[in-house]
Automatic annotation (TrEMBL):
This is SKAP1 protein. It is found in: Cell membrane; Cytoplasm; Nucleus. It comes from Corythaixoides concolor. SMART domains: PH (SM00233). Residues 14-117 form the PH domain. Residues 141-152 have a biased composition (Low complexity). GO terms for cellular component: cytoplasm; nucleus; plasma membrane. Its main location: membrane. Keywords: Cell membrane, Cytoplasm, Membrane, Nucleus, Phosphoprotein. It comes from the Eukaryota. Residues 132-159 are annotated as: Disordered.
Length: 179
């Protein structure tokens, strides 16, 4: 089991979603409640849960990478069953939660699925890419940088402009390609 260093709430980085959920305890005793209210925080890679929103240290956390999130109405038999969702990963612990409302449960699932899709994509997040100047292959001082001008052409002007900009030579015996 990989250990994620415990962090206070304010140090968890980019918070995507947070709020109170009821978390099903892994081992519930005869005396203790099966569902405990927890302040839950989702950041870009980790799900944290705290005793309350003022807690400095989480009661636990786990990397959400390789997990999947889904609504799970079977977790409860009472009126809150439509508020349940779970986080599942083969070979790892399943986490079960109850949100304050069915809409909140759906929002948690949507946010987690969105984040998981982002984690599994091969794209480089924009904030990690160095910004580059636009490439300009015209080497003259009086050239106009078209990226700094906002011009709007109607469809007729656009068709005329495209015909004027045709860079291909039509050879004898060939028909020009019209789109």
């Amino acid at each position: 089991l990989e250990e994620i260093p415990l962090k206070p709430i304010q140090d968890t980085g980019n918070i995507l979603k947070q709020g109170y959920l009821e978390k099903r305890s892994r081992e519930h005793s005869f005396f203790g409640s099966e569902w405990q209210k927890r302040w839950c925080v989702l950041n870009r890679k980790t799900f944290y849960y705290y005793a309350n929103e003022k807690s400095k240290q989480p009661k636990g956390n786990f990397s959400i990478e390789h997990y999947s999130a889904r609504l799970a109405f079977h977790l409860r038999k009472d009126s809150r069953k439509r508020c349940c969702f779970e986080l599942i990963c083969p070979g790892k612990r399943t986490y079960e939660f109850t949100a304050p409302s069915p809409a909140e449960a759906e929002d948690w699932v949507d946010q987690i699925q969105f984040l998981l899709k982002d984690l599994s994509s091969l794209t480089i997040p924009y904030d990690e890419v160095d910004e580059e100047e636009p490439y300009n292959d015209v080497d003259s001082s009086d050239s106009v940088n078209t990226s700094s001008h906002n011009t709007t052409l109607n469809q007729d002007e656009l068709n005329i402009k495209m015909e004027d900009d045709d860079i291909y030579e039509v050879l004898p015996g060939e028909q020009p390609n019209k789109q």
